Amino acid sequence: MSILSKYRTHNCGELRINHTGKQIILSGWIHKKRDHGNLLFLDLRDHYGITQCVIEKSASLFSTVEKTKLETVITVEGEVHKRTNDTINKEINTGEVEVKIKNINILSIPKELPLPVFLDEDYSEELRLKYRFLDLRRKKIHKNITLRSEVISFIRKKMEELGFSEYQTPILTSSSPEGARDFLVPSRINQGKFYALPQAPQQFKQLIMISGFDKYFQIAPCFRDEDARADRSPGEFYQLDIEMSFVEQKDVFNVVEPVLYEVFKNFSKNMKISNYPFKRFTYKEAMLRFGTDKPDLRNPIKIYDVTEVFSRDDVKLEIFKKLIKTNSIVRCIVAKNVSDKPRSFFDNLDKGAKNEGASGLGYIILDKSDPKSLGKGPIAKFFSNEALKTLMDKTESEKGDALFFVCDLKKNVEKFSNWARTKIAEELNLIDENSYEFCWITDYPMYEYDEVQKKIIFSHNPFSMPQVPIEKVDETNPLDILAFQYDIVCNGIELSSGAIRNHLPDLMYKLFKIAGYSKDDVDKKFSGMINALSYGAPPHGGIAPGIDRIVMLLAKEKNIREVTMFPLNQNAQDLMMNAPSDVSETQLKELGIKVVKKIN
User: Fold this and answer.
1) What's the distance, CA 389 to chain centroid?
2) Could you check whether the bond before residue 378 is cis, i.e. omega within 30 degrees of 0?
3) Neighbouring C-beta atoms of residue 246, cutoff 10 Å
4) Interatomic CA distance for residues 283 and 443, integer angstroms
5) Where are the alpha helices (DSSP H) in 362-469?
6) Which residues contact 303 (CB under 8 A, 6 or more apart)?
C-alpha cells in the first residue's frame, strides 16, 4: 500500500512493472553501490525490501551520490523505469524495475561501520551484540525477527479462534523455592525485601482458572538466571502460555496439536510436518527407544535392551557380565547396511564415545560377505552363533548391519546410547532436514532419588496431578508414582512441558510431605496457591510452548540468539546497553543495600 509523505510514496519492496512511468519518493539506507562508468547504481533498502536506483554520470547530482557512503539514510525522488530483460533481478520482488534518480536528500550520515551490513557472514558474537542495531539490518537476521513477529501474530489469532482470551500476569512477584534461580528486584518501600521476576506465570495462570476464567493464553515473558545454551537464552525468553479448566490430558493435546501444525505449515516451505495426532511415547518407553526424553524422530535408528542376552552362558564377555551383576545394563544401537564401511568408521565411533566419557562402544559387524560367519569385530568372538542369532532376532537386525553396545548404569547407558544413536545417524546422513517431526512424551515419574542430597525430590512440576488416587498415595512407593505430565518435542528439541494440575489441597500436602515439606512449609512457601485452592478449584491443566524455540526451528537456526532481537551474550551481558551495570550510591542507599565487593 502506498504511503504519501515527504519521505516516501512507496516502500522499497513495493514497486512493480505497473508502476512504470510514475514519479515516486523512496527513503532508506544505501545498501550497495556499483559504478558502471557512465551509470552509477545504488540499492536502496528499508524494512520491506530493496529497490535499485540509477543515476547518469552527466547528472548534476552524480558526484553527490558517488561520494555518499554505504548505510547513509537518504530520500530519493525519481521515475520508475522497466529494466531490460537481461538486467532483471529475479532474486528480489522489485527486480523488474529501477528508479531513475532526479533528486536526492541526505537524512543521516553514518560513522565508519564496524561490520558490513550487506553481508551475512559470521562475525564474533561480541561484535554482533555490541552493534546489534547494525547486525539487525542484515538480511538473514532481519528476516528472522520479522518471522518471529509474524509467528506471534498468527498464534494469537489461532488461540482466539479456539475461544481463548489473553490475560496479562504480574512481572513483579515472589521468589519461588522450586525451579531455576530467580532474578531478584529489591523493594525501596519495603527495605530488605525482594520481588522476583517470574520464571513463568505458572501459579498465576492456575489462579486465573481458580478465579473462574476458562481458557487463558498469553505470550508471556519469563525470567530465569540460567547459564546460556544454544537453545536457551540467559535472562529472558517468551512462551505461549496456556491454561484450561475442566480438562484432561487429551484435551490439552487436542488444542496444542492443531495450533503447532498450522504454525509450522504456514511458515515453512517444502517441509514435511507430522500430521496430528502426534506420536506419543511414555517417558519409560522414550528412554529405552531413544536414550532421551527429547527424541529426534527424523532419526530412524533404534535402541534395544539386550542385557538378558549378555547374561547367557554362551556369551563369554566377562567384563560385561561383571558390570551386569552390579546393576549395569546393556543397550544395543543398530546401524543398518554398514558392514562394508571401513574399519575407521567403527573405530572413530568407539573413540568418540570415550571422548564423551563412556568406557567405549563395543560392536559386532553382521558380515554379509562371509556365509560361514554371522559376525565379526572386536567382541564377536565372545558370542556363540546361537547367541548372535538371538541378538539379531531381538534387535530386528540382519546381515549387513552393525550392532553397537553400551554397558553401564542406567543413567549413563541412556546418555551414551542417545549419543551413539545421534552420531551414527549424522555419520550416515540419515536425518531428514526437510521435515518437522513432533511427538509427546507422557507419564513422567512424580519423584526421583537425588544421590547428592540422599532424598526423594520432585522430578518435574511439583504442582502436577499424580496418576494415583489420594487414598493410595501413602501405600505406593514414591518412585513408582507417575504424574499427568507431558512434554511436546520437535526434531529433538523440547518445545514445552505441561501438566494436569493438582487442584486438591489435601493431596498437595501429601505429595509435598514425600519430598520433605511440612504442612507449614507448604503454607508458607506456596501461601497464595494453597489458599486459593482451598476455596474450590476446577480440574485444570496447561502447557507453554517456547516461542523462541518455535521460531528457531522455523528459521532453521542452531542458536536461539539468531531469532531474538536483543539477546544477552553467554555471560548474561548486554554489550550494547552495558548491562548489568553499577548503580549509584544514592540508589543503593534508597534501597537499603550495600554492595560487598568480591575478593579474588
Assistant:
1) 42
2) no
3) 11
4) 6
5) 385-394, 410-427
6) 288, 289, 290, 291, 331, 332, 333, 334, 417, 418, 421
Q: Which residues pair with 376 in a beta bridge?
A: 365
User: What pLDDT, on a 0 to 100 scale, did the predictor assign at position 253?
Assistant: 98
- DSSP assignment of 190-247: STT-EEE--S-SHHHHHHHHHTT--EEEEEEEEEE----BTTB-SEEEEEEEEEEES-
- The Cα–Cα gap between 101 and 95 comes to 17
Helix (H/G/I), strand (E/B), else coil: 402: strand
Question: CB within 8 A of 298, min separation 6: which ones?
Answer: 431, 432, 433, 435, 437, 491, 492
Residue of 38 and 243 predicted with greater confidence: 243
Length of the chain: 600
Query: At a CB cut-off of 8 Å and minimum separation 6, what does 112 contact?
Result: none
The per-residue pLDDT for range 243-294, each reduced to its tens digit, is: 999 999 999 999 999 999 999 999 998 899 999 999 999 999 999 999 999 9
Q: What is the DSSP string of 475-525?
A: TS-GGG-BBSEEEEEETTEEEEEEEEB---HHHHHHHHHHTT--HHHHHHH
Q: Residue for cell digits 496430528?
A: 276
* Grid cell of 22 as nine digits: 510514475
pTM confidence score: 0.90
Nearest Cα neighbor of 383 from 330, 328, 327 is 330
Report the alpha-carbon distance of residue 389 to residue 149 in Å, rounded: 56
Question: Which DSSP letter does residue 379 get?
Answer: T
Q: In 3-state terms, what secondary structure has residue 179?
A: coil
- How distant, in Å, are the alpha carbons of 331, 422, 566 from that of 237? 37, 28, 11
Question: Which sign, positive or negative, has the C-alpha torsion 225, 230, 232, 236?
Answer: positive
Residue 499: its pLDDT value, please?
97
